[in-house]
Amino acid sequence: MSEVLTAPLVVEFPFTRSLGPVLSAFLTGLRERTVLGVRASDGRVVVPPTEYDPVTAEEMRELVEVGSSGTVTTWAWNPSPRRGQPLATPFAWVLVRLDGADTALLHALDAAGPDAVRTGMRVRVRWAAERTGAITDIACFEPDDGPAGDGRPAGHRGEFADPVTTLTAPARLDYTYAPGRAQSRYLQALAGHRTVGERCPSCHKVYVPPRGACPTCGVATGTQVEVGPRGTVTTFCIVNIKAKNLDIEVPYVYAHIALDGADLALHARIGGIPYDQVRMGLRVEPVWTEGGRFPDHYRPTGEPDADYDSYKELI
Amino acid sequence: MSKEPVAVTGIGQTAHVAARRDVSLAGLVREAARRALDDAELTWADIDAVVIGKAPDFFEGVMMPELYLADALGAVGKPMLRVHTAGSVGGSTALVAANLVAARVHRTVLTLAFEKQSESNAMWGLSLPIPFQQPLLAGAGGFFAPHVRAYMRRTGAPDTIGSLVAYKDRRNALKNPYAHLHEEDITLEKVQASPMLWDPIRYSETCPSSDGACAMILTDRAGAARAPHPAAWVHGGAMRSEPTLFAGKDFVSPQAGKDCAADVYRQAGITDPRRQLDAVEMYVPFSWYEPMWLENLGFAEEGEGWKLTESGVTELDGDLPVNPSGGVLSTNPIGASGMLRFAEAALQVRGRAGAHQVDGARRALGHAYGGGSQFFAMWLVGAEAPAT
Question: Pfam families per the record (chain A) (predicted)?
């Protein structure tokens, strides 16, 4: 059995979110050390606030200011914090019902250990030194010796100078990618500049690149078949706009190429010929560059063009 | 036991624009849902279940957004489902909702689809740099343009056909207040002079990137009887799938699309769609897909679709108007685009399409596809209740 390849795959993107009126007020409030909730139709105060009533679905816009101290309603100890979590040292995840609120907010509690945490304990907000209008403006919660607050929360207009209207939510996925046995075999053959597909035992079609199974028949494609290296341009487009992260001068031709012996086309760039002279039926061969995993591009072989009928089923 | 006839009694959509920075995702979907309820003169309490759809989570980066949208859509305490079939999702979402009514599981269902493309990154979401794989070399249009060239070669269509479609759809959009693009000064010459991006596709022959949502209220006969405005009745609906790539795949006229259309026509008793249908809302992300789908959906023989476009048959005042709303070429909040096709078909047979109403439309087709011609969803709606 040939070696199955693996490689790390990390994808990251800074997504943006428009906040709408309620969350805009909430996050701007945090920047100003003010925690806002919203009053639901049944009188309960929801913190963090939501835009729509969880019971009646009606729009909620009556903002109130709640306390910055509260009571832990439940918790879980986190012995090994991960990247991006609120604290770098072990901490408790806590649900905190702030004074004046009827629902609990999820955050981190900075405590010495699990023995120092209990349901019902009093905690208070530890504000971040630099606040930008984000949930991280609450750095975490910390134990509080003070008595529970009493009063009903006061109404708040939710108006602040320079309100925050969007937030950035970075997303990151970090995992190990394995292309599987069929792709690994294909890549290992490519390293020797050979293109090896796999034949379906049922419909006899040759798949390049192989995926280990025939998508039409649903059976494993075991038999390896070397195809190419020459092939026929079945169709193409001329790319006139420069794509980000691609170091190719425009215009260039992006083509579907049916390698001789393959039953479906792969996609590649055509070079070695002016872009406006590329045509369907053009016969091409791969051009390799030092260290390339794939052919850099394909160029004309000089053979006569393939007859349309010979490749029309492969378009 | 026969199926329950399904009626569309409420339709709502947002005014589609490049960026809705004033609302959250919840605020966006709420707007469309509220308008659909208002159209049907119903309240949240009248809804038995909610079925929503959108394109991949990676687009906006909100994982399982249906969880967070439950209270905005009045779904608390009710069944809520999410459907996901890439670009066709708006269509398949509506069909899942319709099937719940047809099967008498629920009496009145809110269905909704959305996308906030301004807060998403479709290219990133669709083409992650996978280790060992050759990077995509062409961008979004580069996937479609070679198939357009194949269609032109196969049919001998003149290379102006695509511009005729774009010119028509952009003019139709001027009559649709909800459409994203309103190019008041559009001319055929401008379309034909726009930059060639992925030859043979020009800039003006591509769809925009939009923020928007679309919602519908689907209900049973009793619900339709109480509705304040005429209903659109579902006469047929079907979905079909096929792999994105396989030996023998016909990207110009995919088999799954043909099979899906045939199933819908069989259910609706349609034998000659070209004569029996009054309007079509089809998913045309790049202009040339109009003649391609005209053939795939059985409105023209193979190789003849472009002739319908060229002769003006698909114009708003033509014999078979295609995309009277302006279509995907004028409005493209990806996840919602399929449902917009279904909803616009329903608006036509309800006689409620406003300035882009096709006179006397009695039967219309809504069509969606997506995922590299992998998923197809269609429904056929009529002004009359289906015979049971």
Answer: OB_ChsH2_C (PF01796), zf-ChsH2 (PF12172)
Question: Measured between CB atoms, does B64 come within 8 Å of chain A?
Answer: no
The reply to whether residue B30 touches residue A52, judged by beta carbons under 8 angstroms, is yes
Q: Which residue of A has its CA nearest to B69?
A: A52
What is the assigned CATH class of domain B7-122+208-382? alpha beta
Which amino acid, one-letter code, is at A44? R
Is the distance from CB of B103 to CB of B4 less than 8 angstroms?
A: yes
Q: DSSP label at A126?
A: E
Exposed, middle or buried: residue B249 (CB in 10 Å: 0-12, 13-18, 19+)?
buried
* Beta-strand pair B49-53/B108-116: parallel
pLDDT in tens, B209-265: 999 999 999 999 999 999 999 999 999 999 999 998 899 999 999 999 999 999 999
The backbone torsions φ and ψ at residue B144, rounded to the nearest 5 degrees and listed phi first, read -90, -35
Q: CA dist A300 to A257, A286, A304, B10, Å?
A: 12, 9, 10, 58
- pLDDT tens-digit map of A40-79: 999 999 999 999 999 999 999 999 999 999 999 999 999 9
In this prediction, does ipTM exceed 0.85? yes
Q: Which residues of chain A from 208 to 227 reach within 8 Å of chain B, CB to CB? A: 214-216
Using CB atoms, pick whichever of B24, B131, B148 lies closest to residue A51. B24
The residues spanned by each domain of chain A are 7-171, 182-314
Q: CB-CB: which of A165, A264, A312 is closest to B21?
A: A165
Q: How far apart are CA B303 and CA A137, in angstroms?
A: 63
Angstrom distance (rounded) from CA A111 to CA B54: 42
Residues of A in contact with B27 (CB under 8 A): 20, 51
- The Cα A37–Cα A56 span in angstroms is 17
* Per-domain residue ranges of chain B: 7-122+208-382
